[in-house]
Amino acid sequence: MSILESQRYALEDLDRLEKAIADRFLDTPRTHRDRISQEHEIASFLDRIQHQSKFLLDSFEDAHGERPREIANLQGGEISQFDEFYKQLKNIKDFHRRYPNEPVENLEENYRKKRRTDDDSPDLVDTVDTMFTGEEGLGKYFDLIAFHERYLNLRGVTHVPYVQYLDIFDKFEQMSRTPRDDEYFKYLTDLSGYLEGFLKRTQPLNDPEDMIAKIEENFKDEWENKLKQNGSAENHKRSDPTADGFYCDACEKMFEKQTVYDSHLSGKKHKKNVELKEKAVVNGASSLAADLKAQAIARREYEIKKLAEILEKIREETKINVERKSTLTLRERQLEMEALEREEFGGDEDDGEGDQEDDGKIYNPLKLPIGWDGKPIPFWLWKLHGLGVEHPCEICGNFVYMGRKAFDKHFMEARHVHGLRCLGIQNSALFREITSIQDALALWEKIKKERRAQESLREQAVEVEDDEGNVMSEKVYNDLKKQGLL
């Protein structure tokens, strides 16, 4: 195939790919399965566009000079135009003589919408099914059961149920007693890889590769800044660059309070571990290996935290689903599975009239939300749930939530929690229904005052008596004793 024909073919392919993508976006998916299948199909088209665009850029640069040579031949350069025409015609006839049964490639057929009823087309639904496990529900939920079992087998961790593990699998400050050994690093690597794969499988159109690359860049910046502050990775508090506490590298332990950390430094066990580490360095072991190990563990923990933030909604849905399934009987689970199968496959068993109706535009003058069947929900249902009532939230950047249900649900979502963190507020149930920044700050100040008052009462609750019979609080007694006044 000549270079001009290759370029023409690639340009035609790009036009058909753009039309195919536009057709997919105009077709509203009925179910979650259809949406996932559609997004992966569009993602494959986008990959094809990138491949063809790269080929066109390389061919137009024409490092070997084939394009101007071929144009010159067509214009009657070294040989006449008719000779070039008959030469190409002869090549075409020779090709069809050698391959008489060669099928004609139909680009329009290649990018046509695939239906489940097409026996001769690839079964895209089966491809989507193989991407997810049964527990994941086509990307609706996490499947961290295997990681929960591996977490329980780590040393120094507290045994927690699966529902609680979904809350804490990215909170590594609670694993301060876990040694940072090879088993722990393998657990982090596999968990990070699962979350990356889940993001790619469920959000193929959100450029997951770019999101993961940004996480890597942010980690490198934070790690370098932390090393500049501390001087070395050995003096790092903890492998996680954003963690709070005091990390002992010799004993591989995390301490929350300065006083406990200082008393630990004078202990026999700590001194023994320090001597062993010094001997290892003397014998030829390099501290660079320890720095690289700390950095590798920190990278995995950082990736897991950031990916968990991106997939926070999936985590909440998973917790709800696990708690709900724990209350179902075996019969109820079977009925639920049958209902899901009918919902996913029932819509495509209609005759041709249904397909013709799907190809038409949906009449929706009131701009009502689209239901599970791909059609606007009834107006009475829209009014019943109050989906026309706006609920703005100043903490979320004046984002407007339509309907009370979405408004109530957003208080535990990532956007609202991030807004509270930007204000320096720890989220709790007390801040529910509060959408004003001023009200949230006022309540936070009140909570901090109450905490300080409770701490003061707690310190004064215990009274002690000195040798002379003077009664005082335990705090005052300890202060006077340290000063040598008793």
UniProtKB/TrEMBL annotation:
Q: In Gene Ontology terms, what is a biological process of this protein?
A: mRNA 5'-splice site recognition
Q: Name one GO cellular component term.
A: U2-type prespliceosome
Q: Where is the Matrin-type domain?
A: 391-422
Hydrolase listed as a keyword: no
Q: What subcellular locations does the record give?
A: Nucleus
Output the PROSITE patterns linked to this UniProt entry.
ZF_MATRIN, ZINC_FINGER_C2H2_1
Q: What is its main location?
A: nucleus
Coiled-coil-forming residues are: none
Keywords per UniProt: Metal-binding, Nucleus, Phosphoprotein, Zinc, Zinc-finger
Q: Which residue intervals make up region (Disordered)?
A: 341-360
User: Does the record's keyword annotation contain Phosphoprotein?
Assistant: yes
Q: Which GO terms describe its molecular function?
A: RNA binding; zinc ion binding
**Composition bias, Acidic residues:** 346-358
In the record, the note on similarity to other proteins reads: Belongs to the SF3A3 family.
How is this protein named in the record?
Matrin-type domain-containing protein
